[in-house]
Write a structure and sequence with these properties.
The chain folds into 2 domains: 261 residues, Rossmann fold, CATH 3.40.50.2000; 187 residues, Rossmann fold. 40% of the residues lie in helices and 20% in strands.
């Protein structure tokens, strides 16, 4: 049994803005089931207080000193599915409408990290592995080594730093070192955390962690290149011997069409034909689409951003909707993309619908009722939607990048192998060619389509294999 602490800025079931939250729930759960002592620490946001505060147990308060910061941190805990969750409360820093995007984000997460380390001493519980996630916790290895250099309990901690998306780097002015982190300028002068004329929380994690993990093998290679490295490729190449790529899984209990309470009819890999037909009809009725069991329903559930490839899709909306399909889009994002999908719905009533926002239950019904799921991402560290869609028998159509390439095997009509469709180049013409190819299989090769859906539903998208790889990584960190 290994003592493992996950440090993150968000995590289900409490708070989510992106895929990080899914991992911070599912991976600790998988490791806890394998007998490890797994705990998670998160900021106590306003949204968490409103929904979960009565279920939290107050532990205590300490005075946190980090540079010029001299503020109290109050600690809470609760337990979910065998995992202990800690929360760090500070009204000014965390009780806000959103999680990120504030001018003082550097100060906020400097406080979070230092108060997290102080919490370990207060609890007298020290992990063997401290797994930090993304820039908001990237300073932890350095703070642990420097600020607690005289305490052997901290020095024995081994640090794993997970990069969920290299584009978010936590870059701030150099004045953050003395003012909020309590670190000397030495770490800027020696270049270890310097980025441009300031410092990078992300770079600190890359340089000072014992091991670095990305959320898919292909992404771990892509970030070593100038094209995919977001200007961190040099330092990542320096640490390449300590860089791992471990594909995420999904929570197969939450995402399970056989038990999903959101569906009008539940199904599994043995009776999916009838199950998907019933769910498609119900989805069409719910969203005001023409009720046609034969038509191919194409869906997208995503943040509507350039990274997700939405403009490849908007460029070809007319071409797509001129074919025998129905289109469903769920998500919010950049205003140009939202407006394009509003136009899509207004111009093609009964054939296309855009739900602006996020509705978790509707997302489940879309995965169950659609036939084809689009993920034309320009880059995708891992992605979970393609694995959810496979679980629900909705075939993913993806661009071959990052985790999409690792998890979606393109259909080979000659051998019948595959569990989805894919295209290589980030252009709308290649995407449209692949959509047309997929539609030919749907309408003209039903045997091939049926075999493909069966293969997708039988794909192992759980955390089981990934948890074994993380255990191997932890053993290497601990010299076992």
């Amino acid at each position: 049994m290994t003592r493992i602490l996950f440090a993150a800025s968000e995590g289900l079931p409490f708070v989510k803005t992106g895929g990080l939250a899914d991992v911070v729930q599912s991976l600790p759960n998988a490791l806890a089931k394998r007998g490890h002592d797994v705990r998670v620490v998160l900021p106590l946001y306003e949204s968490v207080i409103q929904k979960y505060y009565p279920s939290l147990q107050r532990i205590g308060t300490v005075r946190v000193h980090s540079g010029w910061i001299d503020q109290p941190a109050t600690y809470y805990q609760t337990e979910v599915d065998g995992v202990i969750y800690y929360f760090i409360e500070h009204q000014h820093y965390f009780e806000r409408d959103g999680l990120y995007g504030y001018q003082d984000d550097g100060e906020r997460f400097a406080f979070f990290q230092r108060s997290l380390l102080d919490m370990l001493g207060y609890l007298d519980w020290f992990p063997e592995i401290l797994q930090a996630n993304d820039w908001q916790t990237g300073m932890l290895p350095l703070l642990c080594h420097v600020c607690f250099r005289e305490d052997w309990r901290y020095q024995q901690i081994r640090h794993v730093f997970t990069i969920h998306n290299l584009s978010f780097q936590g870059n701030f002015g150099v004045e953050m070192l003395p003012s909020c982190l309590g670190l000397p300028y030495y770490y800027f002068d020696n270049g270890s955390i310097r980025f441009d004329n300031g410092i990078s929380f992300l770079k600190a994690g890359i340089v000072y962690a014992d091991k670095i993990v990305t959320v898919s093998p292909t992404y771990s290679y892509e970030i070593l290149t100038q094209e995919g490295g977001a200007r961190m490729d040099g330092v990542l190449r320096y640490r390449r011997e300590d860089l791992w790529g471990i594909t995420n899984g999904i929570d197969t209990e939450i995402w399970n069409p056989a038990t999903d309470p959101s569906l009008v009819r539940r199904y599994d890999e043995h009776d999916w034909v009838r199950g998907k037909k019933v769910n498609k009809k119900a989805l069409q009725k719910e969203l005001g689409l023409k009720q046609d069991p034969a038509v191919c329903v194409i869906a997208m559930v995503s943040r509507l951003t350039r990274q997700k490839g939405v403009y490849l899709l908007t460029e070809k909306l007319n071409d797509i909707l001129s074919t025998a399909v129905q289109m469903v889009v769920l998500g919010t994002g950049e205003s140009d993309a939202e407006n394009a999908f509003r136009w899509m719905e207004n111009s093609h009533k009964g054939q296309a619908v855009y739900y602006c926002g996020y509705n978790e239950e509707l997302a489940h019904r879309i995965y169950a009722g659609a036939d084809l799921f689009l993920m034309p991402s320009l880059f995708e560290p891992c992605g979970i939607s393609q694995m959810i869609s496979q679980r629900y028998g909705t075939l993913p159509l993806v661009r071959e990048t990052g985790g999409l390439r690792d998890t979606v095997k393109p259909f080979n009509e000659f051998t019948g192998e595959g569990n989805g469709f894919s295209f290589t180049e980030a252009n709308s013409s290649d995407m449209m060619y692949t959509i047309r190819y997929a539609l030919r299989q749907y309408y003209d090769n039903r045997a091939g389509w049926t075999g493909l859906v069966q293969s997708a539903m039988e794909t192992d998208v759980s955390w089981e294999k990934s948890a074994l790889l993380y255990e191997e990584l932890y053993r290497m960190c601990l010299g076992q």
